[in-house]
Design brief:
heterodimer, A: mainly beta, 6-stranded mixed sheet, 5-stranded antiparallel sheet, B: mainly beta, 4-stranded antiparallel sheet, about 0% helix, about 50% strand, globular
Chain lengths: ~110, ~120
């Protein structure tokens, strides 16, 4: 059975500091997605990682994929308040997405 | 380009009642998905359609949940009768077609509360 695990589940971040969220999955994947979800809102796609060693960056967020280790990371550089949200990774095989448990980020001054 | 539309946005019912949700996917998208997202968890796929045919409904509780996409466009998801544990956000998503290169786009969701 496919498992997608994220850690930590909750992250309290200080503004200006760097943090990393980890996403481990148990079976091979076609691709790996990262989504953001604000409270009461739907899912916003952040990154799609297609192959081993893929790295994508947008603003203060950078995602990477290591297919051999079955690990993806989402790195936050110099956290700011508007990054507060819940972040999900999702494993993709064919057309099926399996989501991780989510990591709730809270940025404090 | 219009996104995925869902209605209603919120619904409160009592247990054992019935409820239905509606989804209109992005125009031209052949594949439609329904997900259940329980508070504090990631979305879980309930059912996947390709046009008007079911591709995967392995995680749909078929004793109480049903879904259809009769004309291959709009879809409805029904729960009958509802249980307390059905309280969740029901997300609809669509993609151009099946296959690993087709990104899913999500609607705003319907938040269901069962009392």
């Amino acid at each position: 059975e496919l498992k997608v695990e994220q850690n930590p589940l909750f992250l309290s971040m200080q503004e200006g500091k760097n943090y990393t969220i980890y996403c481990n999955y148990s079976t091979t994947s076609d691709r790996l997605y990262w989504y953001r979800q604000d409270p009461g809102k739907s899912l916003e796609s952040l990154f799609v990682l297609l192959s081993n060693g893929a790295v994508k960056q947008e603003g203060r967020l950078m995602a990477s994929l290591d297919t051999k280790a079955r690990l993806s990371t989402l790195h936050i550089t110099a956290a700011v308040h508007d990054l507060s949200a819940t972040y999900f990774c999702a494993h993709s095989t064919a057309s099926k997405l399996t989501f991780g448990t989510g990591t709730r980020l809270q940025v404090t001054l | 380009e219009a996104g995925v539309a869902q209605s209603p946005r919120y619904k409160i019912i009592e247990k054992r009642q019935s409820v239905a949700f509606w989804c209109n996917p992005i125009s031209g998208h052949a594949t439609l998905y329904w997900y259940q997202q329980i508070l504090g968890q990631g979305p879980k796929l309930l059912i996947q359609f390709q046009n008007n045919g079911v591709v995967d409904d392995s995680q749909l509780p078929k004793d109480r949940f049903s879904a259809e996409r009769l004309k291959g466009v709009d879809s409805t998801l029904k729960i009958q009768p509802a249980k307390l544990e059905d309280s969740a956000v029901y997300l609809c998503a669509s993609s151009l077609t099946l296959g690993q290169y087709n990104e899913q786009f999500f609607g705003p969701g319907t938040r269901l509360t069962v009392l």
